[in-house]
Amino acid sequence: MASPVVTAGPHLGRVASFDATRGLGTVGDDAGAVYAFHATAIADGSRRIDVGTRVSYSLVPGHGGRHEARTLVACPGASDDTRPG
Q: What confidence score (pLDDT) does residue 7 get?
């Protein structure tokens, strides 16, 4: 049985993928969970975000019973990818 998704936020994670043409992306948290988002969920209205950007976001019920990331806000220094490589 899958553990329940905690929707109270904000949550922290990194943009794992983003297709600017389609406006679809994913954000992953530090525990390995991945949530889809649409470009309209980017809070600054730009509809663009770089892969690897550290973000805070909220979770909401989405299509097909899955949770989606909304209200993505880049964290200060968010473009700096500090993950070990």
A: 67
Instruction: Dump pLDDT digits (tens) for 49-77.
Output: 999 999 999 999 988 888 999 999 999 87
- Please calculate the CA angle 20-81-7 and round it to the nearest 5 degrees: 70
Domains along the sequence of the chain with CATH: 11-74 (2.40.50.140)
The model's pTM is 0.79
Name the helix (H) or strand (E) containing 67.
strand 67-74
